[in-house]
Amino acid sequence: MSDDDFLRVTDVSKWYGEEQVLHDVSFEMDRGDVTVLIGPSGSGKSTMLRCVNRLAEAQEGSILLDGEEVLSPDLDVDELRREVGMVFQGFNLFAHLTAVGNVALGPRRVLGLSETEARERAEDQLERVGLADQLDSYPAELSGGQQQRVGIARALAMEPKLMLFDEPTSALDPELIGEVLEVMHGLVDEGMTMLVVTHEMSFARAVADEIVFLDDGRVVERGPPEQLFERPEEERTGRFLERIASHD
Amino acid sequence: MASATRPATVRERVAESDRSVGRLLLVAAGALFWGWLAVSWVNRWLGGVLVPVGQPLVPPAAVEATLAGIPVLAAYAADAGFVVEMTPDLARGTWLTVVITGVSLALGFVIAVPLAVTRVYGRFSAWVSLAYTELLRGTPLLAQLFVLYYGLNLASYVPDAVSGVFAREVVWVAILGFTLNGAAYQAEYIRGALESVEEGQITAGRAIGLSKLETIYHVVLPQGLRYAIPSWTNEFVYLIKYSSLAGFITVPELYYRADQIAAETFRYTLIFLVTGVMYLALVLTASKLMVRVEERVAIPGLGAEREE
């Protein structure tokens, strides 16, 4: 563990009421790394992800992002979220805005760009995710895969230093998953730092620098994909991967 | 898609032409009503360029004579002449009703939006908003008007800057009363609509760094206010009708004028029948207008799940 880790999560614990959902979770990432959180549903991986941009509040532990304590009560959370992009399982596109409107809202209202600049940036980002021909479509007029790509463009338009993906393909029909993964592959190639919660094991295997396996709110095992997938040290990891594989 | 190419049955064609005849009649009646109102107002405003102020736009005697010549309508000729004679008063009353309703509705909306927002997203302020809403909805509107007019004597506090806008200061008291009361009802409709905006919309707004207030302004309100239009139209329609309560604090709006005419002439049935038609015209206009507004601001997919 070096001092210049880009993201360092240390002993993060979280309770919902009486129930503890995260138990001393720790992991770290360098700039440009891709870390994939895997685990059964209810294992706390989405909650962990949301603690990083404070959509969920961890009660204990420390999350250092670029040297700054994310969990500090003095932190300006809006400032933090400006720099950390997030992509949701359910897309959560603004239903009253077109694709361009969705992507331009942050640059316009949060970053303070002019109307024209914000629109230009939105168009560039939509082009980046392959939606140059759907600029003025409303979310309801787009397929799930297209909506999720708008969601990615919306996060990218803020020029984040870290991207969080919360099961970005789980709500998609199988034939639409590919187009979203393709965009994500592209981001990996560009060197984006990404923390990803997903069940797409082939994606995880192909791009992850490290896999973190969570079960019951605890880190069971973590390591590079070849190690975790080929020679898991923990029995639970092996069982989980077998179960997942049999569904593929 | 077979049904789209199937020739319409006779019954369907009759129904279709009935509908278009109905629509035509409605448009004609609307044009007549608003034309009469507008011309009357312009005539009065310009000091009687068309006919002397206080005179009907068409001479009652002429109407009476014309109708008397038509066999089926001859029996109603005298009544029609009487009604035409009363139209200047009715036009003034109707105009005031329109103004009071429009101004109160707009001012009420300005108060209702923050009320609804604090009710849904506030903490302490949610209780203040709830208390306001319950107090204003839970007491009779007429009693509220009496408190403002007789109790607090607010008519004597109307600022000089606006006291000349209407012939009498009491009109402002009525507008204040309807604004405060209507805001409570409007807030209830808007609150319901805001609550139906999905939680994920707010999460997404916060996730790109918008503050809570900015998220409400840029994300929740544009959606929620669109959802609110159909139920909010109810408040519009109610306000047109309960603006007649202003008559009880001596505001010379439509009901007040009708009541005065009736008291002087004892033609209660006829006058209130005609007055009823005036209110009906206003209400129909309001609901048609709001349907137009709803269509105008509609966004594909937004609110579709609510129509199921």
From TrEMBL, chain A:
<dbReference type="InterPro" id="IPR027417">
    <property type="entry name" value="P-loop_NTPase"/>
</dbReference>
<protein>
    <submittedName>
        <fullName>ABC transporter</fullName>
    </submittedName>
</protein>
<dbReference type="InterPro" id="IPR003593">
    <property type="entry name" value="AAA+_ATPase"/>
</dbReference>
<dbReference type="GO" id="GO:0005524">
    <property type="term" value="F:ATP binding"/>
</dbReference>
<keyword id="KW-0029">Amino-acid transport</keyword>
<feature type="region of interest" description="Disordered">
    <location>
        <begin position="229"/>
        <end position="248"/>
    </location>
</feature>
<dbReference type="GO" id="GO:0005886">
    <property type="term" value="C:plasma membrane"/>
</dbReference>
<keyword id="KW-0472">Membrane</keyword>
<keyword id="KW-0813">Transport</keyword>
<dbReference type="GO" id="GO:0016887">
    <property type="term" value="F:ATP hydrolysis activity"/>
</dbReference>
<keyword id="KW-1003">Cell membrane</keyword>
<keyword id="KW-0067">ATP-binding</keyword>
<dbReference type="InterPro" id="IPR030679">
    <property type="entry name" value="ABC_ATPase_HisP-typ"/>
</dbReference>
<feature type="domain" description="ABC transporter">
    <location>
        <begin position="7"/>
        <end position="241"/>
    </location>
</feature>
<dbReference type="InterPro" id="IPR050086">
    <property type="entry name" value="MetN_ABC_transporter-like"/>
</dbReference>
<keyword id="KW-0547">Nucleotide-binding</keyword>
<comment type="similarity">
    <text>Belongs to the ABC transporter superfamily.</text>
</comment>
<dbReference type="GO" id="GO:0015424">
    <property type="term" value="F:ABC-type amino acid transporter activity"/>
</dbReference>
<dbReference type="InterPro" id="IPR003439">
    <property type="entry name" value="ABC_transporter-like_ATP-bd"/>
</dbReference>
<dbReference type="Pfam" id="PF00005">
    <property type="entry name" value="ABC_tran"/>
</dbReference>
<dbReference type="InterPro" id="IPR017871">
    <property type="entry name" value="ABC_transporter-like_CS"/>
</dbReference>
From TrEMBL, chain B:
<protein>
    <submittedName>
        <fullName>Polar amino acid ABC transporter permease</fullName>
    </submittedName>
</protein>
<dbReference type="GO" id="GO:0006865">
    <property type="term" value="P:amino acid transport"/>
</dbReference>
<dbReference type="InterPro" id="IPR000515">
    <property type="entry name" value="MetI-like"/>
</dbReference>
<feature type="transmembrane region" description="Helical">
    <location>
        <begin position="268"/>
        <end position="287"/>
    </location>
</feature>
<comment type="similarity">
    <text>Belongs to the binding-protein-dependent transport system permease family.</text>
</comment>
<dbReference type="GO" id="GO:0022857">
    <property type="term" value="F:transmembrane transporter activity"/>
</dbReference>
<feature type="transmembrane region" description="Helical">
    <location>
        <begin position="96"/>
        <end position="121"/>
    </location>
</feature>
<dbReference type="InterPro" id="IPR010065">
    <property type="entry name" value="AA_ABC_transptr_permease_3TM"/>
</dbReference>
<dbReference type="InterPro" id="IPR043429">
    <property type="entry name" value="ArtM/GltK/GlnP/TcyL/YhdX-like"/>
</dbReference>
<feature type="domain" description="ABC transmembrane type-1">
    <location>
        <begin position="94"/>
        <end position="290"/>
    </location>
</feature>
<dbReference type="GO" id="GO:0043190">
    <property type="term" value="C:ATP-binding cassette (ABC) transporter complex"/>
</dbReference>
<dbReference type="Pfam" id="PF00528">
    <property type="entry name" value="BPD_transp_1"/>
</dbReference>
<dbReference type="InterPro" id="IPR035906">
    <property type="entry name" value="MetI-like_sf"/>
</dbReference>
<keyword id="KW-0029">Amino-acid transport</keyword>
<keyword id="KW-1003">Cell membrane</keyword>
<feature type="transmembrane region" description="Helical">
    <location>
        <begin position="62"/>
        <end position="84"/>
    </location>
</feature>
<keyword id="KW-0472">Membrane</keyword>
<keyword id="KW-1133">Transmembrane helix</keyword>
<keyword id="KW-0813">Transport</keyword>
<feature type="transmembrane region" description="Helical">
    <location>
        <begin position="141"/>
        <end position="158"/>
    </location>
</feature>
<feature type="transmembrane region" description="Helical">
    <location>
        <begin position="170"/>
        <end position="187"/>
    </location>
</feature>
<feature type="transmembrane region" description="Helical">
    <location>
        <begin position="21"/>
        <end position="42"/>
    </location>
</feature>
